[in-house]
Amino acid sequence: MIGLDDVKAAARRLHGVAHRTPVLSSSTLDERVGARVLLKAEPFQRTGSFKFRGAYNKISSLSDEERARGVVAFSSGNHGQAVALAARLHGSSATIVMPADAPALKLDATRGYGAEVVTYDRYTEDREAIGDRLAEERGLTVVRPFDDPLVMAGQGTAALELLEEAGGLDLFLAPVSGGGLIAGCATVVAPGARVVGVEPEAGEDTRRSLEAGERVEIPVPETIADALQITKPGELTFAVNSRLLDSVVTVSDVDLIEAMRFLFERLKLVVEPGGAAGVAALLAGKVEAAGTVGVVVSGGNVGAARFAELLRIH
How many other CB atoms are found less than 10 A from the CB of residue 121? Predict the structure, then answer.
């Protein structure tokens, strides 16, 4: 569905707009893992996560007429913030469908970027159906969180930047929700690197789908990783990931908290639970690492009170 040229085109659109986020390392992490680990720190991206890359690439590709009518997106929080800011930068308006129980930090930030937020119950209502209905009623363009080639290509620019600095990777890890981040990144790093996705134990829809050879739907996952509470892989993302991913591993909520603690104490990096998934997999020994390992630390949108609460849990 996408190729390296699509990711490079996205990089040109994002140049001078998105941040080129830092690549961090830790000798302690290297020693514990037994490899050279390079962390692409997307908490330093605009809106606090990698999602700005895909949202901006999509909205910058719309026609003037489409932008004038406005856009709608459905999101657990990070995509919503990204779409809200990208729309504002293009002089467009954004309506974001978000779960009523999304972290207050994400709800407030999305409104702060100028978007209208429409809330729903993630356990009983279908956010995609709500978004599609609003699009039809208001003439809005849907900016999907992952199942869109332009969004996937935009997310892949994180791996493009990482590869430029690393000079080559043997293993690449990223969190998996709907699959857009890892699909875009795998397009860049495979087959030169082994590509491993990381999901919460309660939300292993992509792992199950890869094993079944078709998309499998699960109940809404009960996990602290609110950004990874997807019930089914995207149709387009699964087509890419079933071809390019070597495997998907799972981590527990305790693993995520330990990774958050490690990143805070050793690298002074604040990371939300889902954003720490790749590091969690390494620290928990869920994947064999050797050579040079690239990891996308995908987001840092967690409030101070919630961050402190999670670290107290374990």
Answer: 10
pLDDT, tens only, 271-291: 999 999 999 999 999 999 999
Task: Give the pLDDT confidence of 78-96 residue by residue, as tens digits.
Answer: 999 999 999 999 999 999 9
pLDDT at 313 > cutoff 80: no
Beta-strand pair 292-297/171-175: parallel
Question: Which are the catalytic amino acids?
Answer: 51, 76, 199, 203, 205, 298
314 has a pLDDT exceeding 80: no
| C-alpha to C-alpha distance for 106 and 300, rounded to whole angstroms | 11
Residue (of 13, 111, 52, 67) closest to 300 by Cα position: 52
> HSE (CB half, 13 Å, CA atoms) of 53?
34
List the beta bridge partners of residue 249. Answer: 198
Q: Could you tell me the pLDDT band of residue 76, with boundaries at 50, 70 and 90?
A: confident
CA distances from residue 80 to 6, 9, 83, 151 in whole angstroms, order as listed:
23, 23, 5, 13
Instruction: Record the tokens describing residue 195, joined without a space.
Output: 């590509």
Three-class secondary structure assignment of 175-241: ECCCCHHHHHHHHHHCCCCEEEEEEEHHHCHHHHHHHHCCCCCCCCCCCCCHHHCCCCCCHHHHHHH
- Nearest alpha carbon to residue 218 among 208, 182, 239: 208
